[in-house]
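We modelled each protein-ligand pair independently. The example shown here corresponds to the fe (ii) ion entry; the chain sequence is given first, followed by the ligand as SMILES.
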Amino acid sequence: MTDEGNARTEVSAYEAANGRTPALQTPLRQLYDEHAPLRQEMDAIFELAHGIEDAPLRQATARLAELAERVERFDANLHRHSSKEEDLLFPMMARYIGRDSGPIAVMEYEHDQAKQCLRLFKERREDGSQLTDPSTIAEMGRLASDAVVILMDHFCKEEHALFPMANTMLSRQELDWLEKEFERIDEQGGERA
Ligand SMILES: [Fe+2]
């Protein structure tokens, strides 16, 4: 059937772009691959968060409770991933291309922006007193959605610009060192020794 044929050959712009990405060295490939499960979590978060303020209050409150749990899990998983970039990859690349402007400055700024949204979300949740207040629900939905929007765009930049740049810029020794440090971070559940 023609329809089946079309469905099978249909490739998203994202997949098409990934298909053109040159083979990344192991530690960069690892960072790249860690984006996929984080993206899945972000899809679920966005679905819950976006337009939460339009739901009837009882439903919105239940949605917020689920959203808060998902955001907490995501925050921990994101930290495990982003600490590899912030503590190791970005400083290493900054030795070549600087840190005050250019790609590393942009990447760090976007990490900060996303973290700020997640931190404010967490503060509202921990406060707890306003979790049935429509304006707090709307604000928390906005904070979670904003974090997702920032990070979705950020991941694309890393995948299509930053990681390929690191792939050609970093030496074999630097890449080997990153690989070992990433292993150590993973063994220690996301923290550096
Ligand atoms: Fe990343």
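Residues 90 and 104 are 6 Å apart (CA to CA).
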